């Protein structure tokens, strides 16, 4: 008997797979297509346990689907642009081009050591010109479709990373990467018009039953749809007008003032030359210094100031004061609000502070309190509302908007919380934005046939507040593609989330330098059948990728509107409750575990220790346990080579054989469904463990051919989780064909029902007898037979039977006194 020595067999099988090109993607038109994808990693330097978990999950799915007869696409690549490499360059003087590829090399080696079945011929790195040429090509496509535009805007600026951030990259007012408080800065920047797709991005979430509700809810909230009306108020004594967005046009008669965002374009016009201009400007500057979070938080103090202008109520003509206030945001709705203090909490607080009139216009069922201490937000009957009095407010809402519409001063609309995606970054290690500014022609795109715009090697990384690309004159100065005159290149690079918004398409045509991707092939493979990644990207990567796919759909480049049919968001790997990731340091490194126990042990532990969407607590006992289990499987095969080689047709006449056969088919069924339908790998592993236990418990005297068959099945079921040990055992068992090519075992439903079942008979909880019944026996039949048995008769002689408990297929307990 040979000992289980993972180090030897794992290397051997990894080389074998590589030499035989075992994981090349098949594209057999007679087979269905399956695309298994794990979120590609940033090449940080080395894998952490979180990576091991995701890749193992993806690998189990990919190997399983292949055995089930699918063409399986299972690629891997590198989200290789990004700030860490650049910061490393600033600190240690190693060019990102060098450090990134070194990291990729090391991490690739680690992935191979885990035995993940990637088709490496499709590998891509977003920092390679072969890739970012097409990222730039897509930028041009967006530009042509009016989905990329440049504007001056107050943008989120991280002083630490010295770059702007998209709204999605600001978390609780801080930078998503470093946590530094984000400030506003006025800059001319490029945006992607994702708001154009807000309605579809939100609505189509309903067509994604394979996505966790949690992620869909996060996206819905992020996109944030409100239905309401735009209502226009004329400015008294002027041609100007203010349009407000309100979700409650039914409260129109309760308006007692208007509030504009300090940034609202009308503000400067209205205060110009007024006596209080300087005072108001000082207030505006003060508000602009505070973050959006501060301005919108409900417990922040609401601050406002009157401006010397008034508006006219569109229905009553009443004069309404106009204020500006910190709690009105410039880029939501219209940046202007009608103040209805009686029915809106924020307005109530604001009006109380500034002594503005409060007029109740809806009477709720509970009546209007004599003294108002808070806004009335319930529905009710209209009062103080002219012709609309007496109507239910929801009915009045529609009628009021109808009337405003007929007067040309209002209409129903929707507002989204989602903002356009700011994609300019003042950083080096990203794809250059392929645009040129010419004094004569303005903004000119670099023609598609001149792409890629290569990143210049020589730049000064460390000039704070300046794009590194702007430090290379040779790069900056160019000629205008349109007029041939002198022109300057755009020196910002693209947000790296653009790179990752389309990589899953590029895998299809990774080596084709003539097209962004082959539409026909993409339509065959996509949407991705199973996408595995972290929940932290719920409103970043996963939203952006959906946006990209919809744009490509509209451009006729793909025939589907959603990129990921089904999503598995894996939990974290934690160590005594602390998140284990690159930021906390690699407390337990994959190298160490692989060296000590082998990759198969690491894989089985990861799968077994928790359901995939839950956090997984690292434990040394868990690893030991997984290792012991594999040792047990190894010995099970090694010690039965004689019967395995003898083969033969199983004879399942006896009780033990029937039980064994049932255990075997139950395991096949459970593992098949757990992997293929429920994606619950932990219970799949326990089912295999149960089968192995049943094999060990099988009597020596029972049919050997059946035992051999069960051993073979156990090895096959374990293969997707532990491919090295099972491949080795398979060969040891004398099988010629590689396990990769062996079909997934089928189960026989009829083997899952026993025709006889043994019941334990207990009296007052003590086991007294065992009786065998036909599986079809009813509860009553079992009970009657137990009570009539001679043994029971003798035992209960002279006592009263107080209760009979029958647990179907298990036991009968008699309570006697
Ligand atoms: C009058 C009113 C009366 C309002 C009432 C509410 C209740 P959601 O649901 O989040 O879409 N609002 C509109 N634009 C705003 C802005 N730029 N900054 C801050 N607040 C703004 O919120 C819509 C409501 O938020 C709008 O409806 C408006 O107040 C306010 F009894 O108009 B409402
Ligand atoms: Zn020009």
Automatic annotation (TrEMBL):
<feature type="domain" description="Methionyl/Valyl/Leucyl/Isoleucyl-tRNA synthetase anticodon-binding">
    <location>
        <begin position="658"/>
        <end position="778"/>
    </location>
</feature>
<feature type="binding site">
    <location>
        <position position="582"/>
    </location>
    <ligand>
        <name>ATP</name>
    </ligand>
</feature>
<dbReference type="InterPro" id="IPR015413">
    <property type="entry name" value="Methionyl/Leucyl_tRNA_Synth"/>
</dbReference>
<dbReference type="InterPro" id="IPR014729">
    <property type="entry name" value="Rossmann-like_a/b/a_fold"/>
</dbReference>
<dbReference type="Pfam" id="PF13603">
    <property type="entry name" value="tRNA-synt_1_2"/>
</dbReference>
<comment type="similarity">
    <text>Belongs to the class-I aminoacyl-tRNA synthetase family.</text>
</comment>
<keyword id="KW-0067">ATP-binding</keyword>
<dbReference type="InterPro" id="IPR002302">
    <property type="entry name" value="Leu-tRNA-ligase"/>
</dbReference>
<keyword id="KW-0648">Protein biosynthesis</keyword>
<keyword id="KW-0963">Cytoplasm</keyword>
<dbReference type="GO" id="GO:0005829">
    <property type="term" value="C:cytosol"/>
</dbReference>
<dbReference type="GO" id="GO:0005524">
    <property type="term" value="F:ATP binding"/>
</dbReference>
<dbReference type="Pfam" id="PF08264">
    <property type="entry name" value="Anticodon_1"/>
</dbReference>
<feature type="domain" description="Methionyl/Leucyl tRNA synthetase">
    <location>
        <begin position="40"/>
        <end position="183"/>
    </location>
</feature>
<keyword id="KW-0030">Aminoacyl-tRNA synthetase</keyword>
<protein>
    <recommendedName>
        <fullName>Leucine--tRNA ligase</fullName>
        <ecNumber>6.1.1.4</ecNumber>
    </recommendedName>
</protein>
<feature type="domain" description="Aminoacyl-tRNA synthetase class Ia">
    <location>
        <begin position="418"/>
        <end position="619"/>
    </location>
</feature>
<dbReference type="InterPro" id="IPR009080">
    <property type="entry name" value="tRNAsynth_Ia_anticodon-bd"/>
</dbReference>
<dbReference type="InterPro" id="IPR009008">
    <property type="entry name" value="Val/Leu/Ile-tRNA-synth_edit"/>
</dbReference>
<feature type="short sequence motif" description="'KMSKS' region">
    <location>
        <begin position="579"/>
        <end position="583"/>
    </location>
</feature>
<dbReference type="InterPro" id="IPR025709">
    <property type="entry name" value="Leu_tRNA-synth_edit"/>
</dbReference>
<dbReference type="GO" id="GO:0004823">
    <property type="term" value="F:leucine-tRNA ligase activity"/>
</dbReference>
<keyword id="KW-0436">Ligase</keyword>
<keyword id="KW-0547">Nucleotide-binding</keyword>
<feature type="short sequence motif" description="'HIGH' region">
    <location>
        <begin position="41"/>
        <end position="51"/>
    </location>
</feature>
<feature type="domain" description="Leucyl-tRNA synthetase editing">
    <location>
        <begin position="220"/>
        <end position="405"/>
    </location>
</feature>
<dbReference type="GO" id="GO:0006429">
    <property type="term" value="P:leucyl-tRNA aminoacylation"/>
</dbReference>
<dbReference type="InterPro" id="IPR002300">
    <property type="entry name" value="aa-tRNA-synth_Ia"/>
</dbReference>
<dbReference type="InterPro" id="IPR001412">
    <property type="entry name" value="aa-tRNA-synth_I_CS"/>
</dbReference>
<dbReference type="InterPro" id="IPR013155">
    <property type="entry name" value="M/V/L/I-tRNA-synth_anticd-bd"/>
</dbReference>
<dbReference type="Pfam" id="PF00133">
    <property type="entry name" value="tRNA-synt_1"/>
</dbReference>
<dbReference type="Pfam" id="PF09334">
    <property type="entry name" value="tRNA-synt_1g"/>
</dbReference>
<dbReference type="GO" id="GO:0002161">
    <property type="term" value="F:aminoacyl-tRNA deacylase activity"/>
</dbReference>
């Amino acid at each position: 008997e040979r000992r289980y020595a993972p180090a030897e067999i794992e290397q051997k099988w990894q080389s074998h797979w590589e030499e035989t090109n075992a994981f090349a993607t098949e594209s057999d038109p007679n087979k269905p297509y399956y695309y298994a994808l794990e979120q590609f990693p940033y090449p940080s330097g080395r894998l952490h346990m979180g990576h091991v978990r995701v890749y193992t999950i993806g690998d189990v799915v990919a190997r399983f689907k292949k055995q089930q007869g699918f063409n399986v696409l299972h690629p891997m690549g590198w989200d290789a642009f990004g700030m860490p490499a650049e910061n490393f360059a600033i600190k240690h003087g190693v060019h990102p081009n060098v450090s990134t590829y070194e990291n990729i090399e090391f991490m690739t080696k680690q992935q191979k050591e885990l035995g993940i079945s990637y088709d490496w011929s499709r590998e891509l790195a977003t920092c390679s010109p072969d890739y970012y040429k097409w990222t730039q090509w897509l930028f041009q496509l967006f530009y042509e479709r009016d989905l990329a535009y440049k504007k001056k805007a107050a943008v989120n600026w991280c002083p630490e990373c010295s770059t702007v951030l998209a709204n999605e990259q600001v978390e609780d007012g801080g930078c998503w990467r470093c946590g530094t408080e984000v400030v506003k800065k006025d800059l001319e920047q490029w945006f992607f018009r994702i708001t154009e797709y807000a309605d579809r991005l939100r609505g189509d979430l309903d067509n994604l039953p394979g996505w966790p509700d949690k992620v869909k809810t996060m996206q819905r909230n992020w996109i944030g749809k409100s239905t309401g009306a735009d209502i226009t108020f004329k400015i008294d004594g002027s041609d100007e007008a203010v349009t407000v967005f309100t979700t409650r046009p039914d409260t129109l008669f309760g308006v007692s003032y208007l509030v504009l965002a300090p940034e609202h374009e009308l503000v400067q016009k209205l205060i110009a030359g007024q006596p209080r201009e300087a005072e108001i400007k000082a207030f505006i500057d003060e508000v602009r210094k505070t973050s959006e979070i501060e301005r919108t938080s409900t417990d922040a103090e609401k601050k406002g100031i009157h401006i010397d202008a008034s508006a006219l109520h569109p229905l009553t003509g009443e004069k309404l004061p106009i204020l500006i206030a910190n709690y009105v945001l410039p880029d939501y709705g219209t940046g202007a609000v009608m103040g209805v203090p009686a029915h809106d909490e924020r307005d109530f607080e604001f009006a109380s502070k500034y002594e503005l009139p409060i007029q109740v216009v809806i009477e709720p069922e509970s009546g209007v309190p004599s003294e108002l201490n808070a806004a009335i937000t319930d529905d009710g009957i209209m009062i103080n509302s002219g012709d609309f009095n007496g109507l239910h407010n929801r009915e009045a809402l529609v009628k009021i908007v109808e009337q405003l519409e007929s007067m040309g001063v209002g209409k129903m609309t929707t507002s989204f919380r989602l903002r356009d995606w700011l994609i300019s970054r003042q950083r080096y290690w990203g794809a250059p934005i392929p645009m040129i500014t010419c004094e004569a022609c303005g903004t000119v795109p670099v023609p598609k046939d001149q792409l890629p715009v290569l990143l210049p090697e020589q730049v000064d990384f460390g000039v704070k507040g300046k794009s590194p690309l702007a430090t290379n004159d040779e790069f900056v100065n160019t000629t205008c593609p349109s007029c041939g005159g002198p022109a300057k290149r755009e020196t910002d690079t693209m947000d790296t989330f653009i790179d990752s918004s389309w990589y899953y398409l590029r895998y299809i045509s990774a080596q084709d330098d003539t097209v962004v991707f082959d539409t026909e092939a993409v339509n065959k493979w996509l949407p991705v059948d199973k996408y595995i990644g972290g929940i932290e990207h719920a409103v970043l990567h996963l939203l952006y990728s959906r946006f990209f796919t919809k744009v490509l759909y509209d451009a006729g480049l793909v025939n589907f509107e959603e990129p990921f049919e089904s999503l598995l968001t894996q939990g974290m790997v934690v160590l005594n409750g602390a998140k284990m990731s690159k930021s906390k340091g690699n407390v337990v490194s994959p190298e160490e575990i692989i060296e000590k126990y082998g990759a198969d042990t690491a894989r089985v532990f990861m799968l077994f220790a928790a359901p995939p969407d839950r956090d997984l607590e690292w434990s040394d006992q868990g690893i030991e346990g997984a290792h012991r289990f594999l040792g047990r499987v190894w010995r099970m095969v090694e010690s039965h080579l004689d019967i395995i080689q003898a083969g033969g047709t199983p004879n399942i006449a006896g009780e033990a054989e029937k039980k064994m056969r049932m255990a075997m088919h139950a395991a096949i069924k459970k593992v098949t469904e757990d992997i293929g339908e429920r994606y619950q790998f932990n219970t799949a592993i326990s089912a295999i463990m149960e089968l192995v236990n049943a094999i060990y418990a099988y009597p020596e005297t029972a049919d050997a051919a059946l035992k051999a068959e069960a051993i073979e099945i156990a090895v096959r079921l374990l293969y997707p989780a532990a491919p090295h040990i099972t491949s080795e055992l398979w060969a040891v068992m004398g099988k010629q064909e590689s396990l990769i090519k062996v079909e997934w075992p089928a189960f026989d439903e009829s083997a899952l029902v026993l025709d006889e079942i043994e019941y334990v008979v207990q009296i007052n909880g003590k086991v007294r007898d065992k009786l065998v019944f036909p599986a079809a026996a009813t509860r009553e039949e079992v009970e009657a037979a137990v009570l009539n048995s001679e043994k029971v008769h003798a035992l209960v002689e002279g006592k009263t039977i107080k209760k009979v408990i029958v647990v179907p297929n298990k036991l009968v307990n008699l309570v006697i006194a």
